[in-house]
Design goal:
It is built from five helices and no strands. With 113 residues, the protein is an all-alpha fold. The protein has one domain (2-92).
Length: 113
């Protein structure tokens, strides 16, 4: 019994020379150790993928915000340029001899026979 206790005691020398890995109780636990190592790798990979997805999401949100503000400014500019007074100014500045229609539009009705 005294001899059994001596052999189970782990010393620093066994860590350094690797003889700890060939002990019977360590070899029996090898499938569990391998499973734990595989789970650690999956955890690290999953964490990396989640962080990458979060970074991409944040970048997309910033891009959407920028594009939305750009869209609003372009729409406002288009509304300003499509005013009748702005069109008249643009035509005069281009030197085109077009005149503004004073008569309001009328509906043309065609009678079916």
């Amino acid at each position: 019994m005294l001899r059994l206790r001596k052999s189970r005691k782990i010393r620093w020398k066994q860590y350094l020379d690797g003889s700890l890995l060939v002990r019977r109780d360590v070899v029996q636990q090898m499938p569990l150790i391998v499973l734990i190592i595989i789970l650690i790798f999956f955890y690290i990979g999953n964490r990396y993928a989640a962080e990458s997805a979060a970074i991409k999401k944040t970048a997309m949100q910033h891009e959407i915000k920028d594009l939305r503000s750009k869209s609003v400014s372009i729409t406002a500019e288009l509304m300003h340029l499509s005013k009748q007074s702005e069109i008249v100014k643009l035509l005069k500045s281009k030197g085109l001899d077009l005149k503004e229609n004073i008569v309001p539009p009328r509906k043309i009705l065609i009678e079916h026979e």
